Amino acid sequence: xNPSSSLGLVRIGDMTVAIPxxxxxxxxxGPLELTPFPRAPAHVLGAFVRRGSAIPVxxxxxxxxxAAHEASKPTAYAVVLHHAAGRFAVLADATLGVVRAEPGxxxxxxxxxxxxxxxxxxxxxxxxxxxxxxxxxxxxxxxLEIDGLRLAVTRPDSGGAAAQSIEHDERGDAAxxxxxxxxxxxxxxxxAKHVRSVERRTEPLASDLEHPVLRGFYRSRGADLPVVxxxxxxxxxxxxxxxxxxxxxxxxxxxLVVALIVDDIVGIEVFSPSKVRDLPEGGFARPEFYxxxxxxxxxxxxxxxxxxxxxxAAHVVDMAELFxxxxxxxxxxxxxxxxxxxxxxxxxxxxxxxxxxxxDAVMALPANFTDLRGGGDAxxxxxxxxxxxxxxxxxxxxxxxxxAQAGPGSPILVARxxxxxxxxxxxxxxxxxxxxARPLHHARGRAHGRLTAFRxxxxxxxxxxxxxxxxxxxAALDVASAVS
Length: 484
Hints:
By secondary structure, this protein is mainly β. It is about 10% helix and about 40% strand. The strands form six sheets. Strands 8-1-2-11-10-9 form a six-stranded mixed sheet. Strands 30-22-23-33-32-31 form a six-stranded mixed sheet, with no helix packed on it. The relative contact order is 0.10.
């Protein structure tokens, strides 16, 4: 094992088993049509045909726990392995994704004190950093010493071109492992080296912020990660419901780490860049996120994601700045300003910022809102949240520049004022920034539309440019005076 290695996790019976990812050629969904071997041991089930080659199938459950094994129980997956001794498949009840194992997460096990004629199948355990089930790391050199197994595998020189395609294709391009998963009803593929882990959400997100793609924050390995709705980012129609417990695919690229909401993990397959075909023209909301399309071993077309483009677009929050500490700012009254996360957005033609703690929610204006627009007033209509109805005002109109093309789906900021909840329609949500408010330079003290003069600003950074956003306390607005 390298200092940091990728492991594929599968469930076999009641055991979680770790397999070095470099051995995994692919995952095939069952049931399999097997040709039995004559006079073969019970744990050698036969062979099936994949990409023109016969793949022997080994029942590891019968090897690991023969007494508890249910021979007639069907299994969901076959994990195809490319070992130095040859190619073969092992049966698995579930695929659990790929994890990046650091040295401290692999525990050495002492060998049995008493001598035994049986081979020792594993000497290490993988322990997830955040707890959960430990996985046994199988030693396939030892596994193949079991009676009949080494003779059952397909020899490396007998697989022809299909066997050699595991390492390189006809162009000499190195084949790489990809994680296949479903999101928004579509099969997607991402290079396994960009997948740190796959985790299932068991607790509410660390934020109930509603955003076009940002769903909140998730703590993994001691760090807070932005949670991005992958179907929404890709422009796919289907979304994970609010009441579901979706899977988080933790994706990385260089120093970027993001938790992507996905529906299901399909498995792992190895293919080379030359197997990826260009996308057909049209039909894709965000074609820049894809490298192309590739046929999987099951015959399904998978869209291959471009990791660098995807991760930069998904990293909508600068986590280093969001959770950093800045003690250099001074507030407008001369006191030392404290840092806080601000939501930066656009309204009335300018950049504004409001503390997240002062917002009750950020949400889209629902299609069934009561439309009360007309007459040049700032009132947009009425809507509700958690069975509480409230008024929605056009913040742009209050600032003297009504919001263009306002309607269902437009972002609204919900603040709790002295008179109850009020929603403010804005042009768009930009990002979240940890900052300390500073006095607004060259403030002239004049009102902006129906609102009083701004006194503070924050410095924000987006897409390599600095932005000065005026601070607006929505909860403190005099709504009655503003709309009268």
